[in-house]
Amino acid sequence: MTRTTSPRSRTRRRGISAAAAALAAAMLLSACAAGSGPAPSEAGADPVSGGTLTFGRVAAVNDLDLNQQITANNAFAIDKIFEPLVSFDESGEIIPWLADYEVDEAGLVYTFTLRDGVSFSNGDPVTPDDVVFSLNRHLEVGGPLPLTAPIESIEATGERDVTITLSGPYTPFLSELSGFANGIFPADFGGQTEEEFFADPIGTGPFVVDEWDPNGDISFVKNEHYWQEGKPYLDGLVYRFIADDTQLRQQLAAGQIDAIDTVPAANAAEVDAAADTVLSQTESWATEQVFFNTEREQFADEHVRRAIAHALDREGITAATTFDTAEVANVLLPPSILYSANAEPGIALEHDLAAAKAELAKSAYPDGFSTTLLIASGNSQRAQIAQIVQESLAEIGITVEIEQLDIAVFRERFFAYDFDFMLNSGQSDAPDPNGFITFQADPEGFSKSYWTHFTDERVTELMHEGRETPNGDAREAIYLEIQEILAEQVPYIPLFFPSNLKATTAEVQGFAVLPNGSVRFQDVWLAGS
């Protein structure tokens, strides 16, 4: 896929009201630099091998079947074990990974040539048959991140070549392939059953599962057959399950763990200023949102949703809860994703209590109603947002009860559509806008429009057009219209675009975060190992 640059540069302009900017500037934690990035390597030092890094995470790894998973707790363990044919770099550009590739002039035939010498973690060479089996298995399973391209055939066409033929144009195909769900594994699961294989999986990734408690920690050892020479530098990697973000930060500060996957925005400057910790703050492909279950009668009413959108002060919420580490969201797509319209004026419903009351008066619930807001426990920022939502909606006659649940139970509830409305984030797994839009606006997709059941015929039509239209002005116009419709009908309310906020001790080097929130731990090393 050829990435055009002009639309992206045009939509990356940052906008914030003077009042919000002044408020943010006055905050204690505004010293946190928006450009913070990977932990710098020691001056002039070459990476050294050895040691085990312990990474604190707020959720346990409970499943390693790459075709069946979507949540970050599993995805960012899966991508240490399995790797796709193509990937993306820190700026979101598609890059060859396990294979180089060529595309014919019609954009229908993709030929992938496996790198010479790529092996699985058991030492067996990766063959075209493994690629064919892996991708066909994904097509059969479907799963939460299905291959939706019109794939006509996947064939082994040489000793190292695989040819994928599409029946029609599909612009986001390479972006789709770059996701963790398209990792390659041995044909026929290496002679095992699926259950046996995914309990102790074999892939091409930099690490191999050593010990695993699906309700607790998972530890990895380095893949001695990894195709990137000299990597990984680490001998071992441990994902330590620590359910509370405060405990994460405290254990990092005490040196009990080496890195953490979540830094509360309220503590970002503190972590950054500490002598023994390093903050990583980078752009993400995520959007923090309020999601409505439109199967609930109140939230099936568009006027109710619009009333709530007008009642919420997105700039105030962003300023109060993100401490200058996030950007106010006016649309669904983050500015770091192609064709985001966040800088376009007049799309979002603005904070206006009079307009909120007028919209509610047009609804079937002019006198308000009672409802429950679902959030995951252990997340201090979302707890604060929930209180602001509760207070804001009380002003227009909507009584909100806040229900906090353990993150595993929280996910079970919204996966089962058992909620009124909730706070959650949307996260793209690949750089093309199609992935984000499909997951949040496709009523026939795995998540039924991110568990909202929202349906709009025009959005569905545009979504399909966007997949077939080449990158350029016409495709940009399609995604602009989609974002406008979603902003008008508000099946969800984008609040802000958070940064990826993670942290390490000073000994951790080469720690770079991808825009989807994953870390390529093959590049990480420990000073003094």
Automatic annotation (TrEMBL):
Residues annotated as domain Solute-binding protein family: 93-442
Protein name as catalogued: ABC transporter substrate-binding protein
Keyword tags: Signal, Transport
Keyword Metal-binding: no
InterPro entries according to UniProt: Peptide/Ni-bd (IPR030678), SBP_5 (IPR039424), SBP_5_dom (IPR000914), TAT_signal (IPR006311)
Organism: Leucobacter rhizosphaerae
Record-linked SUPFAM superfamilies: Periplasmic binding protein-like II
Top-rank taxon: Bacteria
Similarity remark: Belongs to the bacterial solute-binding protein 5 family.
CDD domains the record matches: PBP2_NikA_DppA_OppA_like (cd00995)
Signal peptide, first to last residue: 1-33
Keyword Disulfide bond: no
